[in-house]
Batch of 3 targets.
Target 1
Amino acid sequence: MSEAYTPQELMVAVASREISDGDLVFVGMRLPILAYAVARNAHAPSARGLFEVGLMRDQPAAGFLGTMGDPPNVAGALWATRMSNAMALMAQGHVDLGFIGGAEVDRFGNLNTSYVGDPAKPKVKLPGSGGGADIAILSRRWVTLMNHERRRLVEKVSFVTSPGYGDGTSGWRELHGLLGGGPAAIITTLCVLRFPEQGGEAFLASVHPGHTVDEVRAETGWDLTVADDVDETAPPTGSELAAIRRFDPDGFWTRSGFRPAGANEA
Amino acid sequence: MAEAITRFVPDGSTVAMGTSLEPLIPFAAGHEMIRQQRRDLELIGPISDALFDQLIGAGCVRRVTAAWVGNVSEGLGHCYRRASEQDLPRALEVHDHSNFSISLALWAAAWNVPNLPTRTLLGSDIVNTNPNLSVGFGVVNVGAVRPDVAVIHVQRADAMGRAHAWGPLGISEEAGLAADKVIVTCEELVDVDVTLSDPNRILFPETKVVAVVHEPGGAHPSPVQGHFKRDHGFYREYAEQSRTVEGFAAWLTTSSRCRIALPI
């Protein structure tokens, strides 16, 4: 019998498994900060983190982080610099993995964090790109985390802030000159969606324990393809949970309501 | 502070602030703009953690040119939403950027060229809504953004305007170089021999600096490396209070630096 955990703790554990040893990770905000810390402490001891504020680190910060610019993230950094220097590394293809928060995502992995409705007179004005568009276009692969709701996983986003695979046609990213490889996974509160190797449309890869394929399909705004080998998401291990709770001791990100994932999340 | 804002940030100014992203945000200077009821400002920044939201809510802002406006640990900017969605307290124009592209827009102004090419924003709808961005020959051309004034909070500065900051610098250097004028606010006012002992650390040329304001705590609630941490509780309470027009108005009247009553 595994230990009880929150949906956010599971998302952090799943996100941490996306980080390979040796990766340069464009970390972003919120849950990915914890995912980076978990990975560093387990299977990716030589990963490095890059933060758009202008920081590179190896060891996760020793203290709680409310933002990537908090003093514990600066103490012990490998490099404190200007943002354009961090962006330079990503523009050269040196960032192996980026994390982006999304308010809305569509079947081709395009993210909207700008406007719901007409940009000239929006129904909802979301905060904007932050570094999200930069990560989506320039990192080698990226992952987004979000609350799984039908209004968030939509057939087509009303505004593409951070492009995934565009209109889903083969070679869309190459055609438009996007350098990086595009989205690899959407980690939600219910499941993990993945994309084919060559890009295109998201499919259901695994369902979190306690949830069902039918429930995921009902909460998804398009006719979701389910992988033949759809699996149950592996729950967080004891050591993953211990690491999460060490870096989020008061449960600010993982145990006090849903603070979704990413600086540009809404 | 009052004199610096009165003299160098008149109504209608384009103002870069919060250029180090979450740290070193010049809240005291922004709140002085609110107290003096500045109007028709254009705010320029990368992400803005609460300060732009406050100026927008107080009716000071005509246009935002930025990558992100909200509350980093709590989410949405409620005043930003009301201004964009309902024209409250007034209509707001938004020129969207990404963090990379706003940096390039300022470097373009710093180098006095009309635009700089980049591969970021290819495939993003941001290029369709921001008139200063255009796509051609496989790149996005980012038009120069030249602030009238950049307001930069730092750990220490001397009276001649040589500013030392440490920690991540965000887009502070290009904002200072691009701006016609720089207002420095600082935790510590130090002797010239301190700043000149480490000239590599000086953020921008003293020829740009028109005012140095000694304002300890002037970045609160944002963090200042070596001085104080981010006041997370402030951001949480502000997110709650600013959820309604009335709540935001109450926040303005009780905020120790703003203390103005907003006509609702």
Target 2
Amino acid sequence: MNKTPRLLLALDVLAAAGMLTTIGLVFLYAPIERVMGAVQKVFYFHVASAWIGMVGFLVAAAVGVLYLLRRKPILDVAGHAAVEIGLVFSVIAVLAGMTWARPVWNTWWTWDPRLTTAAIMVLVYAAYLILRSGIDDPEQRARFAAVYAIVGAVSVPLTFFSIRLFRTIHPVLFGGDTSSSLSDFSTDPRMVLTFFVSLAAFSLLFVAIFWHRIRLGQLADRVEELKLNREEQQ
Amino acid sequence: MSTPDTFFYFYLGFSVVLGAMILYVISLFLRWRHLKQEERHLSEPKD
């Protein structure tokens, strides 16, 4: 627990290099989109953050299923970590989307199906963190969190597919209408490369942060155990 | 049609993304340091 594993340190370096490469590509390599101007470049961070957010929530659901089957405390720690990271990156995606929307849609926020489902998803997982912190018994808390993460994961596909299921002004990146402003980006290979490098860099960052967050959760459990032991001694 | 100047919003979006990520990583570090101190304190034999 004390020493950071070498593989994790290597992951940290790789994730940092990936992020620096992404920033370099976004600023220096990706062209400025003709219709929206420079703000279109926010898209590289917005989509990658949203991707990590959804991956975090799906990992939490998968880990929740495993917890219910095996009842290992590490799985609860991992589920908690995945939700926290998913929530942070989902909020980042929403904020980045808002800065893009202001000049393009002429508003920071609108109750479009994608924005609404994303907001609901964020609230669902914010409630997860609040509710689990209110349960003292570790086993009950872990069981509750696992079930909540599984049920809450319904909001992930709902958010992802909302732009295909409902009428929306949000751009559809893959398989969308060709008149969509972002569909044109696929014609420029520099944009495509920057986009996929950004996705890969954020994915690496997720793995590194997830590992760190699990270690933090394990340390928190150990401190909790020490506190209980000391109380019993008194 | 000329390309609009939306650099301000690009820089704003970039600052929000990077700033939030850095804040989260700092929070992880601070929480880790705090818990380590607490662990050391609790592991010390009580007088």
Target 3
Amino acid sequence: MKASKKEKTIIEVKHLSKKYGIGIDTTYKTLSESITSAVRHPIKTLKDFRSQNETFWALKDVNFEVKRGEVLGIIGRNGAGKSTLLKILSRITYPTEGEVRLLGRVGSLLEVGTGFHSELSGRENIYFNGSILGMKKREIDEKFDEIVKFSGVEKFLDTPVKRYSSGMQVRLAFSVAANLDPEILVVDEVLAVGDVEFQKKCLGKMSEVAEGGRTVLFVSHNTGAIQNLCQRCILLNKGHIINNGETADVISQYLNIGLQVSDKSVFKRDISNKKLAFTDINLYNTKGEIITKSTSDENILVVINYDLNVQLTGVQICFEIFDQNGICILSSTNFDSNIKMRTISQKPGKYVAKCLLNTSFLRNGLYSITINSSIPHVEYLDEIEFATRFEIESPLDITNVLSQNRRGIIFKNLIWQIDQC
Amino acid sequence: MTEHATDYELVIRPKYGLLDINWQELKEYRELLFFLALREVKIRYKQTIMGASWALLQPLFTMIVFTLIFGRLAHMPSDGVPYPIFSYAGLLLWTYFSNALSQSSSSLVDNAPLLSKVYIPRIFIPTTPCLSGLVDYGIAMSIILIMMVYYRFVPGISILLLPFIILLTFMLASGVGYWLSSICVKYRDVKYIVPFFVQLLLFISPVIYPSNIVGENLRLLLYLNPLTGLIGAHRACLLGHIPVDFVGLGISALLTIVIFVSGIMYLKHTEKYFADLI
């Protein structure tokens, strides 16, 4: 292929591996805690002890290169190693093996608003947050007006951030990060926050950055956004790169993985620092049995379990049903039937969300369900892609009723009437 | 080879050398240290009625209590100077040191989001409270100036040593802070040990009493506490009542440098795993 100066390699990842001890979350106990827990749960402690020796490779022998000006998408299911990869690239954690060579400053949007202090004014937080992200005071001075304009909080610049609405805080934080000028920009899931208008602004800003000749690494569950922004994509699965190529190909392979996997391993992850974490999802028939298959004339009860670690108000729980082609054919949230849930406050604890799914609109085939949770316009909480799947197998399928392939993603039995006139 | 000589190249590898400080990076980020300290100063007394006067009141009230108990009741010797100014000259440095140390040792855990979400030179985090504490020290200094006027004390030439003593105390607090904050990431026991440790340290440092009331044989033991030389010299150079004990100051300086450098090394050695453990 052509090898011009522009195609200089900016990121070079060689044999990168990262190992975690599985018992990692038990390591910061105090001494007395370890003793009491050993006395109380001897069997569990023994298991813990054994699992300490078990290790888990979050990334294993990952190799890739990114050229100047490229926008590389990184996709994969929960636990595939995406976040670990980004954390290594932004130097938050270190690899166990291998190395990364970076040519240029890395700006990371792993978490917007880090270091925001609620007692400080918007203006002070812009300076502080900017410098945490690696900007010089001079740079922030230059960009100040742009940041303020982008965020739309002009009037409240000298108000302490604690008086801001949560949406305003997020917008301000993102604006600071988006106006960074690094050679390499690392973006993770920030688009899940903010309203549609603001998301558009953010996507626009990212393509602007890429057009300016800088390199962007973009991790998202939003396959639509990935498709729009990235020419090339990496698919991670269980710490390995299983595909590295044209975005469209990689995305279709990714969606296929989703249809194949149906175990509960996606729920096994470190949830200690999550405000809300999904713990399980099950589908039941009307007799109360767990099912993976159903017919289009039987209702399915979707039961989603989650843990809340802090008190939150206005938690939205959502599930999305994808068909075999990766098209989302339905999304439903707990706000749909009861808008008052927006103002309900939930105390920490275990919760179960149930929704009765009338499947009469589903045609025969395999479907997968993705669950996610957020406080709309404020905060993205948790997401499990392809958390479960089910199959619709009706004895009398409309496709068979007609002798040809009928089109249409969904089916609705409509009443027809034919009169002779 | 490269088109731009200014190209900034970074290699992320699993292992680094023992004292591998990236000076270029520290230079890049130097403004951040200032912003971190500024933030700390700005938020410290937010939403308090007394505001920054807390920086005065804390050593002032301690001085009053000490004067009543140790000066009046116990008749503690004080190098021949009035007990209030004697104890305050010690408390001034002690208050700075103990506050800086307490905050520094829990700083990494308290700032967990800074560790797990963004990259900044980790060493800045435990350094920040030691820097911002200097502002409180400066504020509390005004009381001793008033007392010096009242008691007619004129500092001698040895006052020139003051910046050096402050620098050493800063290094000592940071050095111990580097050790304790790094350990605290893994063992939260540190949180419970520090307040207790600081309390005990007050009694083995010459804040309440002059170091010369301790017998010769025990004096050496007292010198092993690097604060002994620092507090003694701090008091002597402010009040000029006795000559500065250069032996004590020298031992303190040596110990401080050892603690400071080894603290940096320990922090550098463990920082790779902070984000995984916190």
